[in-house]
Amino acid sequence: MDILATDFLDAFQELDDSQILIKETVQKFVKNNFLPNITDNFEKGHFPKELIKEMGKLGLLGSNLHGYGCAGLDEISYGIIMKELERGDSGLRSFASVQSSLAMYAIYAFGSEEQKKYFLPKMAAGECIGCFGLTEPDFGSDPAGMKTFAKKEGEHWVINGSKTWITNAPIADIAIVWAQTENGIRGFLVEKGAKGFSTPEIHHKLSLRASKTGSLFFDNCKIPKENILEKTVGIKNALMCLNQARFGIVFGVLGAAEDCLNEALNYTKERIMFKKPLASFQLIQRKLAIMSTEIAKGNLVALQLAKLKQNKKIKPAQISMGKQNNVQIALDCARTTRDILGANGISGEYRCMRHMCNLESVYTYEGTNDIHLLIVGQQLTGIAAFE
Ligand code: TGC
Ligand code: FAD
């Protein structure tokens, strides 16, 4: 059998039948429903909301959660879903990450039985869209410093403050909101339409354009006292949600990286310069070989993390190493492909520049590249260098 450029070490050649079916199903969904309009959607800053229920029907939302209408898949299958969505566009994977690993997981892990029964089946079906509000204008890498405050007043919680850079905010039916209380940081469920709650869109993004991003504003926002996530006791619970989403990113970004490598290979075999295909020049082959090698290593990292997570042995610093490493690989592949395509590389007629612009956000969100290096550094030395 030939060696696949995007899986040089055959890491993904041992999937079981169900994992192969999942991969093919998501690939087909992305190819038929998402890709035909991505260039226009990216230019217009449009997220195709009409696809959400279809994603729900396919079991792609909350797919590694068990019960409550969720598919209960294994961690490799979850990773494959993220990878195939991000092969299409990081914005599509972002939607699924936030819905599944941040919003649904928060309710799944820290909500009451009533909250789980009420929200999770609707969210798995794509009938209720979630967002996750942790970042504030003055507290990005250091969310524990947040100022948003929730105060208990009789039968209600009253929330004041703001969150920013929140994926899905303008289209969300429900927001998971982290706020200071008299007893530390707790999580809350704020439903669309709550008095004093608004979710304006952030405009002029040059990255993740086919994804909706907004702010959350709370002006004496009143929610029922039951809308607290009762098992939350501090910032640690928000960080536990991030572990889930960061794990998905480890797989997801490889989809974008592989799409770039395929684009670079096709292009360099066709494009003639100095009377020869670009693919015949040593410098070009070196770039292709480095991309393929880094993707092969990234695939092994992803699969090893999935194994650890499946066996419930994974540690946050291991996920940080994977997120930092694989996002860097994907961004490097996108930039290299952009370079290899010359002037065509900056055109939306090709895919690499869109992936590259998207990956600049992925490099920053869910913990910046440097923050993840510092988390690994803390693990190695026992010294936290954040402060
Ligand atoms: P620190 O004092 O180190 O820890 C506080 C407590 O939390 C525990 N802990 C964790 N637990 C589970 N998972 C993790 N990843 C954990 N990290 C820390 C820790 O053991 C401790 O527990 P205990 O029992 O001793 O109380 O916390 P810190 O406040 O100093 O923070 C450290 C730091 C910088 C690593 C953390 O704040 C961090 O990760 N910052 C990055 C912020 C971030 O990633 N924000 C993401 C926002 S969501 C988003 O970007 C969505 S993008 C979505 C998309 O479109 O895909
Ligand atoms: P800052 O924390 O100000 O960091 C700026 C720079 O300083 C970075 O290079 C950083 O690495 C560096 N730095 C910071 N602290 C240190 C330190 N101690 N030592 C060394 N260097 C340091 N947040 C949510 O809560 N929910 C979402 O759904 C969400 N979606 C997002 C979608 C998009 C498109 C984007 C771009 C962001 C999103 N975010 C979301 C916010 C994201 O998580 C934050 O942007 C991220 O955590 C970084 O925070 P910041 O932007 O405030 O950067």
Automatic annotation (TrEMBL):
<dbReference type="InterPro" id="IPR052033">
    <property type="entry name" value="Glutaryl-CoA_DH_mitochondrial"/>
</dbReference>
<keyword id="KW-0560">Oxidoreductase</keyword>
<keyword id="KW-0274">FAD</keyword>
<dbReference type="InterPro" id="IPR009075">
    <property type="entry name" value="AcylCo_DH/oxidase_C"/>
</dbReference>
<protein>
    <submittedName>
        <fullName>Acyl-CoA dehydrogenase</fullName>
    </submittedName>
</protein>
<feature type="domain" description="Acyl-CoA dehydrogenase/oxidase N-terminal">
    <location>
        <begin position="17"/>
        <end position="127"/>
    </location>
</feature>
<dbReference type="GO" id="GO:0000062">
    <property type="term" value="F:fatty-acyl-CoA binding"/>
</dbReference>
<dbReference type="InterPro" id="IPR036250">
    <property type="entry name" value="AcylCo_DH-like_C"/>
</dbReference>
<keyword id="KW-0285">Flavoprotein</keyword>
<dbReference type="Pfam" id="PF02771">
    <property type="entry name" value="Acyl-CoA_dh_N"/>
</dbReference>
<dbReference type="GO" id="GO:0004361">
    <property type="term" value="F:glutaryl-CoA dehydrogenase activity"/>
</dbReference>
<dbReference type="InterPro" id="IPR046373">
    <property type="entry name" value="Acyl-CoA_Oxase/DH_mid-dom_sf"/>
</dbReference>
<dbReference type="InterPro" id="IPR013786">
    <property type="entry name" value="AcylCoA_DH/ox_N"/>
</dbReference>
<dbReference type="GO" id="GO:0033539">
    <property type="term" value="P:fatty acid beta-oxidation using acyl-CoA dehydrogenase"/>
</dbReference>
<dbReference type="InterPro" id="IPR009100">
    <property type="entry name" value="AcylCoA_DH/oxidase_NM_dom_sf"/>
</dbReference>
<dbReference type="Pfam" id="PF02770">
    <property type="entry name" value="Acyl-CoA_dh_M"/>
</dbReference>
<dbReference type="GO" id="GO:0046949">
    <property type="term" value="P:fatty-acyl-CoA biosynthetic process"/>
</dbReference>
<dbReference type="Pfam" id="PF00441">
    <property type="entry name" value="Acyl-CoA_dh_1"/>
</dbReference>
<keyword id="KW-0809">Transit peptide</keyword>
<dbReference type="InterPro" id="IPR006091">
    <property type="entry name" value="Acyl-CoA_Oxase/DH_mid-dom"/>
</dbReference>
<dbReference type="InterPro" id="IPR037069">
    <property type="entry name" value="AcylCoA_DH/ox_N_sf"/>
</dbReference>
<dbReference type="GO" id="GO:0050660">
    <property type="term" value="F:flavin adenine dinucleotide binding"/>
</dbReference>
<comment type="similarity">
    <text>Belongs to the acyl-CoA dehydrogenase family.</text>
</comment>
<feature type="domain" description="Acyl-CoA oxidase/dehydrogenase middle">
    <location>
        <begin position="131"/>
        <end position="221"/>
    </location>
</feature>
<feature type="domain" description="Acyl-CoA dehydrogenase/oxidase C-terminal">
    <location>
        <begin position="234"/>
        <end position="380"/>
    </location>
</feature>
